[in-house]
Amino acid sequence: MAMEFIVENIHNEIIKPSSPTPLHLQTSNLSLLDQMTPMVFVPLIFFYPNDDNNDFAKAEARSQLLKTSLSETLTRFYPFAGRMISSSSIECNDEGVDFVETRVNCRLQDILKKPVGESLAKLLPSQMGSKTRPLLLVKVNIFECGGMAIGISFWHKVADLSTMKLFIKTWAAMAQGSSEVVLPDLTTIPSLFPPLDFPVNAKEMDPMIQLPKIASRRLVFDASKISMLKAQAASRDVPQPTRVEAVAALIWKFAMAAATTNRGGLKKQSGLFQAVNLRKRLNPPLFEHCAGNVMSCFVAETLDCETELQSLVKQLRNGMRDQFSESNMGKLQGSGAVSEFLSLFKQVEKFFTRDDLDFYYCSSWCRFELYESADFGWGKPRWVSSCTGHQNNLTQVNSYILMDSSDGEGIEAWLNLVEGEMAIFECNQELLAFASVNL
What we know:
The protein is an alpha+beta fold and 439 residues long. It folds into two domains: 7-190, Chloramphenicol acetyltransferase-like domain (Chloramphenicol Acetyltransferase), CATH 3.30.559.10; 204-367 and 388-437, 2-Layer Sandwich (Chloramphenicol Acetyltransferase). The protein has helices at 32-35, 56-76, 108-113, 117-120, 161-175, 188-192, 202-205, 223-233, 243-262, 309-323, 326-333, 337-352, 370-373, 419-425, 429-432; strands at 7-15, 27-29, 41-48, 83-84, 89-91, 97-104, 136-143, 148-155, 214-221, 269-277, 295-301, 357-364, 383-385, 399-404, 411-418, 436-437. GO terms for molecular function: acyltransferase activity. Keywords: Acyltransferase, Transferase.
């Protein structure tokens, strides 16, 4: 059962860049990949304990430091403080980002005992009511113990997780007064993948249809269980599966089983759409400070309704290998990149609309070093979480996000299924041999 708590807004503010954006930088171009990205806010929450219980003065000082350093960071990431004016550009007009400070009527440790997505959503910001949509929202939640949770939602069309990590890392460095702050490169990605000349209808292109009555759960796979899982997932074709392949395949396997049971035993073919970061796959690879969306995907399919773990891992490995082979990557970077990306998108859209197919979506946020990037001067966060069950995030049926656990070795998964299937899924004893639910 989710813990009940009240989050009271005590201060709302628009944070603008500390220095005005120069006239020659007041239009920032999007890339083709930005245009093809869903129109959603992506959430992250960073949790920080307070060693001095009930020290609100320290927490308030930290909140003030966050505002000052955020303003300085926006000077470098000036498009984030602007507004989208078309499907291909942002007006960098320094209108700013939403910043909310709250008080939470419980202790931080009470929430961390058994975090539930629907409750954690209270710690995330929502648009304050301005006529134009801010591209970044921030909510600083201060608990009775003086602990803090920083909720951030960023507009996916202007940033992928790599870019958001760079933003947070820069913000944290500014808060610490570091002189080693790298300026973001805001032009390379749009030059590599120029936007289309005609408007992109994001609703038509976005196949991720939201459905009502979605149940969300957090699954925790510790390092020892992942080692066991990888051993079971290994085969002659994939002798050393990665931890992401093993966990992604396991969730896919039992989600399919739950769907079959919920339909009274009717089996269907299944596909898994997996998002992939292209930065290190490009030739030459992109530097970390290149800002924007550089994502693509591949689709893995079951063979004749085959749901054995080793077979699913093999399909994941083959999908990754085939879609991102050296020759295919050459096409994505060549003169035919537009047609290649649009063809891939139409392929995925076609899968999503098939009635004879169970389709799932997986995004891995592992190895993004979010814990290491978010030290604002009072230590790394105790916990970093995405949050399902929130109206502005990537919540869609049959989807899951994989994240590193705090030790960097385990994996946490946030999973969304329709309610009837989740009730079956979360009781599967084979699953529970490897994962804990909402622990």
